[in-house]
Amino acid sequence: MPRSDHLRRRPALWRDEAALVAQPRPLVRPPRGVAWGAGWVDSGRVFTYEDGSALKPGYVSDNFERLSAAAQLPPVRFHDLRHGSATMLLAAGVDMKVVSEILGHASSAFTADVCTSVAEELAEQAAAVIAAFIPRRVKARAADARSSNVPAHPSSERGLSSGLG
Fold first, then answer.
1. What are the distances in angstroms from CA 55 to CA 27, 60, 62, 148?
2. Cut 0.70: pTM above it
3. Cα–Cα dist 19/32, whole Å
4. Angle between helices 120-147 and 80-91 (to 10 degrees)
5. Which three-class secondary structure state does DSSP give residue 162?
6. What are the coiled-coil residue ranges (predicted)?
7. Which DSSP helix (H) or strand (E) runs through 85?
């Protein structure tokens, strides 16, 4: 998907958020742009400058950095939030193709290349899978050894679990 096309795509909303957006609300203030009259720019964006024109990326990034510092949050670039959300989606088990579509990437292969950071949960899950596999193989070998003609170790015949008994 060319970059210009994905800038116009509409993000998916979760059911709860979609319901909130769909609820009719009484207007507390005049509709956007009324105060600007003919000077209002209908950019079709939700977040805009006061006159309705699209925000420049630098403006968003600079203000995000300033607000993050004021809130004493760890330093992170605004764009890194995309990577963080992609990592969390993958950690939650969302399919790579779906994450790719959410991010507006042309292919899931590109998403996989870009999302090089792996959440700790994913690494822990991988370690748990390996750990679950290895003990079964060891136990199976031990059972095979006991049923074979190989004599048992002397400590096991006396019921000792270690050589310290």
1. 24, 7, 12, 75
2. no
3. 22
4. 30
5. coil
6. none
7. helix 80-91
